Amino acid sequence: MCCTWFISCLLDWANQPVLCPNERVEVLSGCLFLLLSNILLLFCSLDKKTSNLTSNRFVWLDDIQDFTAETFRIDKKPDPANWAYKSLYRGDIARYKRRGESCLGIDAKKQCITWDSSASKRKQLQRRPERYFTKNNVKMLNTDGIPVCNKNSPSHPAAFIPVFQMETDDPSDTMEVNPLGIYDTSTTVWLQGKEGRIADHEPVNTQQTIQEPGIKINSILMAKVEEHNKKVRENPRDINAWMEFVSFQDELMRGPSPYASKGEQEIRRKSLKLILEKKLAILERAIESNPGNVDLKLARLKLCTEFWEPPALIKEWQKLIFLHPNNPALWKKYLLFCQSQFTTFSVSKINSLYGKCLTTLAAVQDGSMVSHPLLPGTEEAMLAIFIQQCHFLRQAGHSEKAVSLFQALMDFTFFKPDSVKDLPTRGQVEFFEPFWDSGEPRIGEKGARGWKAWMHQQEKGGWIALKPDDDDDEEEIDEDQEIKDKTLPKWHIWLDIEYSREARQWLPWRPDKTKKETEEDCEDPERQVLFDDLAPSLIQLSNPDLQHQLLYSFLQFLGIPCTSKLFPSNLYIAMDENNIFDSVLSDEKPLTSVDFPLSGFNSTGHMDTMLRGRHHIGHYKEGEEFIQNVFHVLFLLFSGKEKSNLSIYWLQYEISKVVQCLQAKNKRKLKAQGRKSKKLAKNLLKAPENRNDLSLWKLYAYLEWLLGNIDDARKVFDTALCTVGTGGLKSPQLCSLSLLYAQLEVELLESIEGAVMSRAAHILTRLAESGPYVPYSGQVLSVNVLKARKTYEHALQDYLSKTPVSDQDQVSDANQLVNLVGCYALFQYLTVGIDAAVLIYAQTSEKLEASGPQKCENTGENFGVQNFPSALEAVTLLHTNLLKFHMKISVYPLNPLREALMEALKRYPSNQSLWRSYIHIQRKSHSASKARRFFDGVTRSTNSLEPWLFAIQAEQMRKKLTENVQRADVGEIHSTIPESGLTNRIVALFEHAVQSENGTHCPLLWRMYLNFMASLGKKEKSKGLFYKALQNCPWAKVLYMDAVEYFPDDLQETLDLITEKELRVRVPMEELDLLLEV
């Protein structure tokens, strides 16, 4: 058709006349006609081919007039690709955009269309879901939400956001009138014929509701900033307001800037430095308004740690101490700061700093420093700082100086002459120096009489020379050869000799005048302690409770278990021993397991690496004689109850050595130690004042029981019960003795069946009868059991309703209540069952909780000697121990014990016994999620370090169990089974723990962390961690000794570092080389 039209046009043009006389034009016209003719022939041929093709495949609309409504195209050529693919080629399919998920014309109640969109699926596959740590999600989580409150609440009305609830009869009604979702809510309601309902609602402030969340949050933050500024402006003396303003900066920096304009994209960098600078500016403003406040200055110094170098910080600390020399809390923080600065640390500097601190506080106490008043609690703080200094010297390896400090202060406190008591402290020290340098025996040395006796004798003309005992001429022959095997590596030999000398030479060396020795005869000058090293640290203690605290701290320092604990400020920086996880005999004897009150602390003379552990029980001969002499001197000084307590502590020390022998399964050592301990117990009971002391009889019988002499122990128990008389439940000592006797007998039972006729039931029944004790004959009358139950019930009610008069009565009543509850619950357990015993414990705990909240930790208000666990804590221990025993001998669910432990640990998070029991039962659980949540909750709610330590220990036990299962029957070959991230979890726990306030300067925590990293074989990371630990605990010699074992190739470098920091090295490398050459 196109070709025909073109030819007709061409002919019309050719036939037109050309009005030009020129011949050239005629010729041109002829040529043009020929060209057009050729083109015409070409188009004719194409038109012919096209017409043929069109007749076969195409139909033109112009040619067909009758079938325009049904016109379509037919493609008869097959497409082989349809065999290979599931659908037609996408280019052959018409595309369109769908609006909504509905379809016009269908009934929404009866019909439904499901759209399968491959494009949406492809987009979903391409868009990966974002994790919580991505940038967008972190930003969203750090943004505070919009607060929503009730309309009638008294808060700010701008916080109320009304929410409409449209009531619809059927949710499908909306689909009928708005199938494509293109109408708004009001139009949809109008289409449904419900336009009247919208008028019922109150008008909405649309400008408020459509606010962007970011703008709303900005207004909230700005309101908070204005509120804080208003507080500190109106009341600049309010220290808490300033501190809250400083803490608010962290919250402010988490969200968007409240000062950014609307629509402005915030590009500021949220850096730590920016936050610190803002906090520092606020604190400087606060200090300008409160120049005398110490807390603000301490907060400022803590912030400056991130900016300043250690020398500049120390100068600022010195200025602060100069302005407030009478503040003991400030001195404690200053001492810890200087003690933990690795770059400027040395033992001599820190020791002199302790002396300067105590000298200054003593001057304030005496009143000689008139410029500053005496603050309350100064004397208690001085004793705490003194004990901290002694443990610092022990941890640095200078045990001789630490022992001498205790000796000097004991003489200075308990043996002070009456003629110098009215003098100031420095004047008393000047009188004390001649005694100390006179060469007379001191506390712990044979023949010691004390400062008072020496001065009294000097006034009469001096001492009478006494002949030395024959025992003094005997040389100690139990010293073994220092190098037993020269084929061992050099570092191993050094550790062996260092440990041996640490265990044997912890006492200060003094020349023996009977042997005509002089100071030049000392092979190691470091073993001599000069008076100038001790004089600045001598203080006055006028409070009797503090004097007893000093005495018991000295005994604990020597390794003797006592009832008192360290001061809270000293607790974690002195913790360096890995024995807090040792459950001594708890598996074999759940009811009577031994709990050492000062676990986690190395006693003097015991310092070894983490892997080797302690391999010596007690002390060597010289150390045991020193402890014996200390007790002999104290027996002459005290009388009555205090002397009885000293006897108990001495016998407990002997029992602790027996328990260590049992734990080590050393039968030969156990037999020898048993003879010594029994000899001491008998000698103590022979004393007239101790013959009726049931506490000593109880310990002696327990000692016989531990040694396996059960019949002899029963005889001792029966003898003590028969001789005590008829005290009954009103006698605390009788209840305690009967409770231990019954618990030991119950532990022998293999089943609870028939326990009502057992010896334990007889003991508890006779206790309630308040009559003379009759030994067990093999049966228990039912009538006596019923009478005893009534007696126990009435006695318990009387004690729970009793009100103590004084603190001493409160302690005595608490101990008696614990013993009474223990006897009653055990009696019910034997005669009725476990449920009756648990009911007794539950009722008592509920009553004690209702009587008043009891603090779980010593927070510093009471530094006295009577620092016993609270009654509720002791009752909880009895409760959990009984459940553990019952689960051992019979089938019983684990959940009651777990719940009891969890409730107790929430209340007493620093109780190591409860934590040991908890991780012991969790070891049997396959799922660790519940325990992990519990550990996480406790660590967030307390500052105690024990939850962190035991959480780490629980994960390490789980990792060890997993590895044992994976390596079963394959030796040491590592399995390819994944460990489910336990290593990373343990490392994360360590990192969080060492960043806590109490964990930063805890040597035990760093030792555990270093040991774990070394066990993974990561040498480079372990070495980096070692130097990181030294940045926080440079005084702990055990860290350096651990490093020698983990990195033996760096032995010389480690020893050079120890020498540089002036820690005690008993075996220099030059001496070791000489010993190896011999």
Question: What's the short version?
Answer:
With 1078 residues, the chain is mostly helical.
Could you explain the architecture of this structure?
Helices cover 57% and strands 0% of the residues. The protein has 1078 residues and is an all-alpha fold. The termini are far apart. The protein is globular.
Radius of gyration: 44 Å
Average pLDDT number: 79
- Low-pLDDT windows of residues: 17-28, 49-56, 165-169, 196-215, 257-270, 464-480, 854-868, 972-977
| β-strand amount | under 5%
Shape: globular
Roughly how many Å apart are the termini?
A: 124 Å
Give the % helix: 55-70%
Profile the largest sheet.
none
Count of strand segments: 0
Kindly report the oligomeric state of this protein: single chain
Structural class: mainly alpha
Number of helices: 43
List keywords for this structure.
single chain, 1078 residues, 57% helix, 43 helices, mainly alpha
Topology:
Blueprint lengths: L1 H14 L7 H35 L23 H4 L33 H9 L8 H8 L29 H6 L7 H7 L14 H4 L3 H22 L4 H16 L17 H18 L4 H11 L5 H14 L4 H12 L7 H20 L11 H18 L3 H16 L10 H13 L13 H10 L29 H15 L39 H14 L10 H4 L49 H17 L3 H24 L2 H20 L7 H13 L3 H15 L7 H15 L12 H11 L12 H19 L6 H25 L2 H18 L19 H19 L5 H13 L4 H11 L6 H13 L4 H21 L15 H13 L8 H13 L3 H14 L4 H10 L4 H10 L8 H9 L1
Family: Belongs to the NRDE2 family.
Organism: Bubo bubo (Eurasian eagle-owl)
Pfam families: NRDE-2
